[in-house]
Amino acid sequence: MSDAPVRTSPVSRLAGTFLLGAYRAFGLVVTPFLPILFARRAARGKEDPSRRGERFGRAGRARPPGRLAWLHAASVGEMNAARPLMQALRARDFTVLLTTGTVTSARIAAGESDPGVIHQFVPYDTPSNFARFLRHWRPDLAITLESEVWPAMIAALAARRIPLVVASASMSERTARGWSRMLPLARAVFSRIPLCLAQTAADAERLHHLGVPRVEICGNLKFDGTRLPVDEDALAALRARIADRPVWLAASTHDGEELLAARVHQALTTDFPALLTIIVPRHPERGDAIAASLAARGLRLSRRSHGELPSPDGDIYLGDTIGEMGLFHRVAPVAFIGKSLVPEGGQNPLEAARLETAILTGPHVFNLQDIYRPLIAAQGAEVVEDADALARALARLLADPELRRARAATAASVVAAGSGALAASLDALTPLLAALPETGR
Q1: Integer-rounded Cα radius of gyration of the chain
Q2: What sign results for the dihedral spanned by CA atoms 171, 174, 175, 179?
Q3: Beta strands in 256-361 (DSSP E)
Q4: Which strands sit side by side in the sheet containing 141-145, from one edge to the other?
Q5: CA–CA gap between residue 197 and residue 199 (Å, rounded)
Q6: Cβ partners under 8 Å of residue 219, min gap 6
Q7: Residue 56 gets which letter from DSSP?
């Protein structure tokens, strides 16, 4: 879009430098209290106590020799979107240091078969944490995904002259307004990002206004993802057990949505007495609590985490495992995508679209408007306002195979039309990659 720096007055630059320094000073002040935060999060299952040091910048692995690219993705969806980019970096002889911030993403990353991809938890955003992190890993390049912009991290990278790229960069109107209220700080932060690869022209305009000197419009990497993998033996076993039963999937559910799915199941059994409902919670560690609440409603269930297949007369199959979403999407022709009947912002529906699934979603998808907007406009996804509307939509789709197939085909075509971000991003990155030293730092 533009390579021109944003003009700021000397007073504004001075104010921005002061505010960034104040932010970094605040980080030093709160550092002694971060172990308390970690302990509280660990008690709720949101941190891995065995890898505590990583959150404070203490590496859990040795740095390998040669060139190293640090790639940060917030959670599972961003990590999956980043996989083609990681593969492209590996093809250019980079070791990839992948950081994420959630326990679930770390568990999935643990199954990475490429020894040239190293996973670590991202440090808390304080100067001391990132000083330790960067001193050990010495990345030649840093890439963050979407909206992962952290002032202490950016300042630390700039101080060490490590180039930073924000790929698949997004900047919502709401977030941009928030940054604009403290524009000197925003420009002190964003001016230190050499390159942003924006999803849309609107994202690009907002990022440039906040101070990013160079912004290219490259699209959304999530549209360029691949079909989720599956264990073929597990798929054959599950298909054989389900046989010709009608089945639907409640995918990536959050607290409260499992009981809504149970209500929907019970409402549908009058017309579909053999119905099987598969529930896959976003956080599998909630499996025990979910199983107890479903059993309390009189529902018969089996649990994937216990090595069970659905019982022939069972109501619910609880997919409380990590990394098997590709299995569940392949056996269910209709999927409700969770985190959307509760006001949490939605989950990525593109994995379902790639696997020829008819998609239903609740109304609360404000974090994924860039994906849902074209899907809904093309009628590749249907919005349901509550559990009753979900039951009615499922009844229509379960009774009408042609409608299911048409919905799934439309969703797949929307995904295909949105692809191309990886190629555009690599084109924009090529000059930067070529300028890096061959031997690494």
Answers
A1: 23
A2: positive
A3: 276-281, 301-303, 316-318, 334-337, 358-361
A4: 117-121, 95-100, 68-72, 141-145, 164-169, 195-198, 215-217
A5: 7
A6: 168, 199, 418, 419, 420, 421, 424, 425
A7: G
CB-neighbour burial class of residue 356 (10 A; exposed 0-12, middle 13-18, buried 19+): middle
* Residue 54 falls in the annotated catalytic set: no
Which parts of 340-386 fold into alpha helices (H)? 350-354, 369-377
Answer whether 210's CB lies under 8 Å from 149's CB: no
DSSP 64-101: PSS-EEEEE-SSHHHHHHHHHHHHHHHHTT-EEEEEES
Q: Which CATH architecture is the domain 232-417 placed in?
A: 3-Layer(aba) Sandwich (3.40)
Angstrom distance (rounded) from CA 33 to CA 22: 18
Do residues 218 and 428 touch, judged by C-beta distance below 8 A?
Answer: yes
- 26's tokens: 């605040």
- Which residue type occupies 368? L
Residue type, 264: V
Q: Do domains 10-219+420-435 and 232-417 have the same CATH topology?
A: yes
Choice among 47, 78, 258, 324 that is catalytic: 78
pLDDT per residue of the chain (441 residues) written in tens, 0 to 9: 555 556 666 656 767 676 777 777 777 888 899 999 999 999 998 999 999 999 999 998 999 999 999 999 988 888 888 888 999 999 999 999 999 999 988 988 888 778 999 999 999 999 999 999 999 999 999 999 998 888 889 999 999 999 999 999 999 888 999 989 888 888 888 999 999 999 999 999 999 999 999 999 999 998 988 888 899 999 999 999 999 999 999 999 999 999 999 999 999 999 999 999 999 999 999 999 999 999 999 999 999 999 999 999 999 999 999 889 999 999 999 999 999 999 999 999 999 999 989 999 999 998 888 899 999 999 999 999 999 999 999 999 999 999 999 999 999 999 999 899 999 999 999 999 988 988 777
Q: How far apart are CA 38 and CA 56, in angstroms?
A: 10
Calpha distance 148→142 (Å, rounded): 12
- The first and second tokens of residue 142, run together, are 């840093």
Identify the DSSP state of 308.
Answer: P
Q: Which of 434, 435, 422 lies closest to 197, judged by CA?
A: 422
Span 10-219+420-435: which CATH code? 3.40.50.11720
Ordered by start, the domain boundaries in the chain are 10-219+420-435, 232-417
Contact 302, 277 (CB under 8 A): no
Residues 224 and 162: their CA atoms lie apart, in Å, by 27
